[in-house]
Write a structure and sequence with these properties.
heterodimer, A: 163 residues, alpha+beta, Alpha-Beta Plaits, 2 domains, five-stranded antiparallel β-sheet, four-stranded antiparallel β-sheet, 4 helices, elongated, B: 569 residues, alpha/beta, Rossmann fold, six-stranded parallel β-sheet
Chain lengths: 163, 569
């Protein structure tokens, strides 16, 4: 099953490689991994999307917690949570599909952030699954380029990850 | 007064009460060696290869309750040390390794003797640090020692660039450490402990299985009390030997691939299993599915949550310091009026004793013609009164030492259990002898393993280490040969060492005493003479039966009850 794991770690050189190294050394999957500093510049927040059996996910959580640099961790899938990913898609517009593209993009609350004679770049923020649906809707033939950030997530309501 | 980084390193070691450092000098650690030279509190043991420095520090730690310390230079000094670091990591040995690094301004430029030490060691250390500012040295070393010895112990590397070791700052050693992201568990959960106690008291076929964690955490006394209070059978893993005394009738021997019949059968057929500081690894329970075929409740006590439920499902997980958890478990059991059901226990012990009769603990067929390796270990046990520190390398000799030297106390059996590092035994014995001066120290080895760090005979000469080397020389890489015999149609691919040196003359060349023993009748005399030479390193080259195999054996990937006994072949 797909899990989103969120963690706070010391914002130190090499911290990212400790996590990435752990996943490759133990043969765990990484679907996406994003990391950036938080409001406290000494801490980074990392979001990892991974998949595996319950036993594997339990081990991933324990092994991550064991890293000395990891200060706090939650498996967002253990409770209510929100998930968002940002995507930039550059599509080709020369085949007279501008109207259709606009309609789909509006449906998905996309935002056009660049336009040229033959191209248009759309920015979208949604769940990973919705981004997949968008790509399917516009069709692979018109896609020139996609860039996705990978998922980030946060607990709903009172569910907070903080030191 | 301001000190250089190098002087600070040495002052930190003094503050940590470090008496011995094992190391090898080089360009990037010149300032540190200079600072070492100008004091006499911290003594340096000059090894002949960096791998040996780390193994020696490892043996030092295993046979005492101290943190082992090694000092190596950058580049090849560090890469040579990696095997030693990985060995310590797999067996959770508390150690601090200080490595030199090229100057900060040269890092990343492929400078002479530059290697990414922190990157290379990351998967085989508990934690590591690159110190880029002289002001951080003291706090980092304080953290390194704290991390190495607390929680689940392990090796910690501190990489110090050459320029940093020459910069100056005020020295202040912190009194305490606070790492906000690191809080090892102390006491266990009381509710879980009460649950475990109830489960143990209601067991009909109970078993206690203990590992290296008991030895490392000094919880052997608690384990003994627990086993004797409950009167349950107890087995030790290879790493756990000595955690429970072999002479106690409740001890059913080591379990696992080369464990006793009774230990493996009891492990397989028990209904409640208490695992203490052990991790159900592949050499211990063999095939996981086969193990799961017999339903049993498992209580697992360990300091490391990730060791629990890694390979087998656990019913009552308890995370905490073994000593504290066992103390609490003992007090719950003592205050409970209930006792294990007497008739169930009698029936279970009858069954265990029946298995004992079939397996007979450890058995081999002795000979008056050719030296049997098991016989040498039995004699070694007899002559040392079972009170020596025994280090070993890896292979058949390691298993025979584990099986036939009946360990009574913890920290007496020093071997590379997890990584299985050939070349471990001799340097580890140096560390053991340094921290236990005057004690009997024997290194049980093979002619393959001993040659992987033979150069250390020179270190032993320089530092007057009177180790007894028990070489079980069968002329083969015996354990590999055994597998080739069983599983690869007797095709002995590259396992015959047909250009062996004359070990007696080799020992003599290094300034030691060498002895060759070829007849069973001479084994005892030779061992007696060797141990009578209290100040000499004696290298005993026993010519042993080249066809002897290690039994019992649970073939790789098979289940515990699929164990093969010697007489079945």
């Amino acid at each position: 099953m797909r899990h989103i794991i969120s963690l706070l770690m010391e914002n130190e050189a090499g911290a990212l490689s400790r996590v990435a190294g752990l996943f490759s050394a133990r043969g765990y999957n990484i679907e996406s991994l994003i990391v950036a500093p938080t409001e406290d510049p000494t801490l980074s927040r990392m979001t990892i999307v991974t998949s595996g059996s319950d036993a594997v996910i339990e081990q991933i959580n324990k092994q991550l917690n064991k890293l000395v640099d990891v200060a706090a961790l939650i498996d967002l899938n253990d409770g209510e949570h929100l998930e968002r990913e940002m995507m930039l898609v550059k599509v080709n517009t020369h085949s007279g599909n501008r109207e259709e593209l606009k309609r789909i993009s509006d449906n998905f609350h996309g935002r056009v952030i660049d336009e040229s004679k033959n191209t248009r770049t759309i920015e979208l923020t949604d769940t990973c699954a919705r981004l997949d649906s968008f790509l399917e809707a516009i069709g692979h033939d018109s896609i020139l380029e996609t860039v996705r950030t990978g998922a980030s997530g946060i607990g709903r309501g009172e569910r907070i990850l903080k030191l | 007064m301001e000190l250089t980084g190098a002087e600070i390193v040495i002052r930190c070691l003094q503050e940590e009460q470090v008496e011995h450092v094992f190391g090898y000098p080089g360009g990037a650690v010149l300032f540190i060696y200079d600072a070492l030279f100008q004091q006499d509190k911290v003594k340096h043991i000059l090894v002949r290869h960096e791998q040996a420095a780390v193994h020696a520090a490892d043996g030092y730690a295993r046979s005492s309750d101290k943190v082992g310390v090694a000092l190596v230079t950058s580049g090849p000094g560090l890469t040579n040390a990696v095997t030693g670091i990985a060995t310590a990591y797999m067996d959770s040995i508390p150690m601090v390794i200080i490595s030199g690094q090229v100057p900060t301004y040269a890092i990343g430029e492929d400078a002479f003797q530059e290697v990414d030490a922190v990157g290379i060691t990351r998967p085989c250390v508990k934690h590591n640090f690159l110190v880029k500012d002289v002001k951080d040295i003291a706090a980092t070393i304080k953290k390194a020692f704290y991390l190495a010895r607390s929680g689940r112990p392990g090796p910690v590397l501190v990489d110090i660039p050459k320029d940093v070791s020459n910069h100056k700052t005020r020295f202040e050693y912190p009194d305490s450490v606070n790492i906000r992201s690191y809080h090892p568990q102390g006491k266990g959960d009381s509710g879980q402990i009460r649950l475990a106690a109830q489960m143990l008291l209601e067991a009909r076929r109970p078993m206690i299985y203990s590992g290296g964690g008991v030895v490392l955490s000094g919880a052997s006394g608690q384990l003994i009390d627990l086993v004797r209070l409950l009167d349950f059978p107890c087995t030790n893993t290879l790493m756990g030997l000595g955690g429970f005394p072999a002479s106690d009738k409740r001890f059913v021997g080591m379990l696992g691939m080369h464990g006793t019949y009774e230990a493996n059968m009891a492990m397989q057929h028990c209904d409640v299993l208490l695992a203490v500081g052990a991790r159900f690894d592949d050499r211990v329970i063999g095939n996981v599915e086969h193990f799961a075929e017999v339903p049993r409740k498992i209580i697992h006590i360990d300091i490391d949550p990730s060791s629990i439920a890694k390979r087998v499902k656990v019913d009552v997980p308890i995370v905490g310091e073994l000593k504290l958890v066992l103390d609490e478990l003992l007090s719950v059991l003592r205050s409970n009026k209930q006792a294990p059901n007497a008739s169930d226990m009698a029936a279970w012990w009858k069954q265990v004793d029946e298995w004992r009769g079939i397996g007979g603990g450890m058995r081999y067929k002795n000979s008056s013609e050719i030296i049997k390796p098991q016989f040498v270990i039995e004699k070694l046990h007899e002559i040392t009164g079972g009170d020596a520190f025994i280090t070993s390398d890896v292979g058949q000799h390691q298993m025979w030492a584990a099986q036939y030297y009946k360990f009574e106390k913890p920290r007496r059996w020093i071997n590379s259990g997890g990584l299985g590092t050939m070349g471990f035994g001799l340097p580890a014995a140096m560390g053991v002898q340094m921290v236990n001066p005057g004690a009997m120290v024997a290194c049980v080895t093979g002619e393959g393993s001993i040659q992987m760090n033979i150069q250390e005979l020179s270190t032993c000469k320089q530092f007057h280490l009177p180790i007894k080397i028990i070489l079980l020389n069968n002329g083969y890489l015996g354990m590999v040969r055994q597998w080739q015999e069983f599983f690869h149609g007797n095709r002995y691919s590259e396992t015959y060492l047909n250009a062996l040196p004359d070990f007696v003359r080799l020992a003599e060349a290094y300034g030691h005493v060498g002895m060759r023993i070829e007849k069973p009748a001479d084994v005892e005399t030779a061992l007696k003479e060797a141990f009578a030479r209290k100040d000499d390193l004696v290298f005993l080259d026993f010519k042993t039966d080249p066809t002897e195999n290690v039994f019992p054996m649970v073939p790789g990937g098979r289940g515990l009850s699929e164990i093969i006994l010697a007489e079945e072949l």
